[in-house]
Amino acid sequence: MSRKLFGMISIFIMAGVLSGVCYANSIPTQITFGPNSMGTVTVSAAGPEVFSGVWGWAYQGANSGNPGFTLANATIPVAGGSGGIYTLAANAMTFTVDIGVDSLTGILSLNSVAIQPPGVATFVGTLAITSSSPGFQSSGFPKGAVVNADFVTFNGNLSSGELIPSVPEPGTIALVGSGLLALAGLLRRRL
Running DSSP on this structure, what letter comes out for residue 156? Predict the structure, then answer.
């Protein structure tokens, strides 16, 4: 009897610890950036979109850095579209974020741009993270992850933007929990 009780208590403690780990790592903090301190972004419906030496402030929670973000120089052709929304040709540029001792590097691929007068453009794409320090890894930006990226430009300057980390789905956490309960049931029968 005491052996069964010990086994069940052990399983519930393990489930509690694992679910705590899931929730502790599922609190991502987005990285925001802008305005740029140097460089320009040239936006045109006829294309190409040109990024020249763009860098500036980056923020995550209460932390900030300048130059916190750096975009590599790039010229991106417009592949098509009309009415202010344009798809961009395949592209890849190096994007780096440095805040305090933490550093993050990845390949930024921009998919589309929405151009609105007077001089406002919104870019949308993804960042494939190629290297990440422990501070960024623990806040939702591990090496190998692909996160959403977007930013807004106004009259040649990057005014704001963000990197949005992936959040584990509640369904995934529920699936892990139900699997642990099934394991507990199997162990209970065997003990």
Answer: T
Q: What do you get for the CA distance between the two ends of the chain, in Å?
A: 9
- Can you state the angle between helices 2-25 and 170-190, rounded to 10 degrees? 170
Amino acid at 89: A
Contact at 8 Å (CB) between 41 and 49?
yes
- Enumerate residues 6+ apart whose C-beta is below 8 A from 67: 37, 38, 55, 56, 57, 98
The string of pLDDT tens digits covering residues 138-150 is: 889 999 999 999 9
Q: Is 104 strand, coil or helix?
A: strand
Residues with Cβ within 8 Å of residue 88, at least 6 apart in sequence = 49, 76, 77, 78, 79, 110, 111, 112, 113
List the alpha helices (DSSP H) in the chain: 2-25, 134-137, 170-190
The residue ranges of the chain whose pLDDT is under 50 are: 21-26
pLDDT, one tens digit per residue, over 152-187 is: 999 989 999 999 987 655 555 556 666 666 666 666
Residue 186 phi, psi dihedral angles, 5° rounding: -65, -45
User: pTM for the whole thing?
Assistant: 0.73
